[in-house]
Automatic annotation (TrEMBL):
Residues 104-164 are annotated as: Disordered. Residues 265-488 form the Rab-GAP TBC domain. This is TBC1 domain family member 22A isoform X3. GO terms for molecular function: 14-3-3 protein binding; GTPase activator activity. It holds the Pfam family RabGAP-TBC. May act as a GTPase-activating protein for Rab family protein(s). InterPro entries: Rab-GAP-TBC_dom, Rab-GAP_TBC_sf. The lineage of its organism: Eukaryota, Metazoa, Chordata, Craniata, Vertebrata. Residues 105-126 have a biased composition (Basic and acidic residues). SMART domains: TBC. The keyword Ion transport does not apply. It comes from the Eukaryota.
Length: 559
């Protein structure tokens, strides 16, 4: 580059490839690159790069490097040009042959798999039959031995030789006892040999299947049902249900008494009307309830006619699109996968967002519809909601459920709307208060999280945003909301103490984690899948204790 004669252009074209330049890969959309089929892709004078030698090359001068460097951004080597050239020279016959061969190989593989499965099933049936035959032979031998023993015993009795009933084998001699000594009920032969064979085959199939955890319904059948899942009403449950019915049957419901009764849980049979009363959706006067329901439902569907068609307008399409994306992410999936439920949830969330422009729609609000919807569905069905097709309900019933869910969700959000306004100041204040509260009630837990740089906002934001719905099964959320409805400012105030009690509940598991990653994985995936009303009741009792100690003395937990 020092003299004009030796000066060369830096980005000069050459046969060698630039290290790191883009190379086309043939495979997923093209057959493997074949030099014979694509000879005209190789430019005149270009040769395939030689194999890398074992010995490293000597260092070259800058001029030599300059001379063998080609321009990766040259117009002649553009990606589109190369792809176009490759497409023009592809042999369509080779492509079709390759595709047919792939399909044929796949079909053969599927056929082999099917034959293997059939053979394996036949072998299993043969083994099961052999085992059944062996069991029958063993039982026959045992029967013969028993007959021999009876004959022998009879001979002994005839000879006047009687074993003392107090001897070690007295249980085998008594007339009402079985001659076979059985260690447990599971070893006793029950039923005929055919029954035993069927039972054995069923056991064999069960052992061959992968282990499945016991299924726990997402919504408890009774308000006071525990994880054990007792189907029948206990005396306590029946007594509580009678108290609710008597209270609700009066001409004017005493809301204070209803709150006290609801704090410990609401029976499923009366939960829909109790939630509507406690949320302020229905009046305490029984005569006015029907007219209020009719007016509010008509008002909601008036909003549908007025606003819902604007969901595709320029100003609202982003809101509707976000709602449409978030609904499939909700829990439980069995509900939101039903098209009818998806349409109902979209209407509820969109109308609420249009009527509350200060916050609009925010992720997290979508989860708050589910408990109301499920509880109000139970007003019209007896079976569990997991296996129920919502579209089988009458159209008028679905409209009532939709309108009631909208108004009750609106009442809830009116008390916590600062959680969803710009920058979500309500959530930030509550997370800060949670941190201060935990530092006072469990300093070792608080210091442990500080030591590994875990910020409360990193895990507690979701607890406040979704009201613990992502941390608890739906059956526990509904039980929790019984108390929230009964507690003054339950969703906005009492929830803070529930979160504090919930965090301290896992102190042992938290203190065992010794790194940031382990702590975050635990706090975002707490093992509550098998929780029931017992665990929720203990959690609420501890939260009430914290509220009683700290709610009226805010300076007590500030350092």
């Amino acid at each position: 580059m020092s003299s004009e004669g030796n000066k060369k252009q830096f980005w000069k074209r050459n046969a060698a490839k630039v290290p790191g330049s883009i190379q086309h890969v043939y495979g997923a959309q093209h057959p493997p690159f074949d030099p014979l089929l694509h000879a005209n892709l190789i430019k005149a004078g270009n040769k395939p790069p030689p194999a890398t030698p074992n010995k490293p090359k000597k260092a070259t001068t800058f001029q030599e490097f300059e001379s063998i460097t080609s321009d990766a951004w040259d117009v002649g080597d553009d990606d589109d040009e190369l792809l176009a050239m490759a497409a023009q020279n592809l042999n369509i016959k080779v492509v079709m042959e390759t595709a047919n061969q792939v399909i044929e190989n796949h079909s053969k593989q599927q056929e082999r798999q099917r034959l293997d499965d059939t053979t394996e099933l036949e072998h299993r049936e043969e083994d099961t039959q052999e085992e059944v035959v062996a069991e029958e032979e063993e039982e026959a031998e045992l029967e013969e031995e028993e007959e021999d023993e009876e004959e022998e015993e009879g001979n002994r009795l005839e000879e006047g030789y009687v074993t003392s009933p107090e001897g070690p084998f007295a249980s085998q001699i008594g007339p009402c006892t079985d001659s076979l000594l059985v260690k447990s009920h599971s070893e006793a032969p029950i039923g005929s040999p055919r029954d035993a064979a069927g039972e054995h085959a069923a056991l064999y199939r069960q052992q061959s299947l992968p282990h499945r955890p016991p299924v726990i319904p997402l919504v408890a059948r009774m308000a006071d049902q525990n994880t054990s899942g007792t189907p029948a009403l206990t005396e306590r449950e029946a007594s509580r249900l009678d108290k609710f019915k008597q209270l609700l049957a009066g001409p004017n419901t005493d809301l204070e008494e209803l709150r006290k009764l609801s704090w410990s849980g609401i029976p499923r049979q009366v939960r829909p009307i109790t939630w509507k009363l406690l949320s302020g959706y229905l009046p305490a006067n029984a005569e006015r309830r029907e007219s209020v329901l009719q007016r509010k439902r008509e008002e909601y569907f008036g909003f549908i006619q007025q606003y819902y068609d604007s969901r595709n307008d320029e100003h609202h399409q982003d809101t509707y699109r976000q709602i449409h994306i978030d609904i499939p992410r909700m829990n439980p999936e069995f509900l939101v996968l039903q098209p009818k439920v998806t349409q109902i949830f979209e209407r509820i969330l969109f109308i609420w967002a249009i009527r509350h422009p200060a916050s609009g729609y925010v992720q997290g609000i979508n989860d708050l519809v589910t408990p109301f919807f499920v509880v109000y569905v139970f007003e019209y069905i007896e079976e569990e909601v997991e296996n129920f097709d919502v579209s089988s309900l009458q159209e008028e019933v679905l409209k009532n459920i939709e309108a009631d869910s909208f108004w009750c969700m609106s009442k809830l959000l009116d008390g916590i709307q600062d959680n969803y306004t710009f920058a979500q100041p309500g959530i930030q204040r509550k997370v800060k208060a949670l941190e201060e509260l935990v530092s006072r009630i469990d300093e070792s837990l608080h210091r442990h999280m500080q030591q590994y740089e875990v910020e409360y906002l990193q895990f507690a934001f979701r607890w406040m945003n979704n009201l613990l719905m992502r941390e608890l099964p739906l059956r526990c959320t509904i039980r929790l909301w019984d108390t929230y409805q009964a507690e003054p400012e339950g969703f906005s105030h009492f929830h803070l103490y529930v979160c504090a009690a919930f965090l301290v509940r896992w102190r042992k598991e938290i203190l065992e984690e010794r790194d940031f990653q382990g702590l975050m994985i635990l706090l975002q995936n707490l093992p509550t899948m098998h929780w029931g009303n017992e665990e929720v009741s203990v959690l609420l009792a501890e939260a009430y204790r914290l509220k009683f100690a700290f709610a009226d003395a805010p300076n007590h937990y500030k350092r």
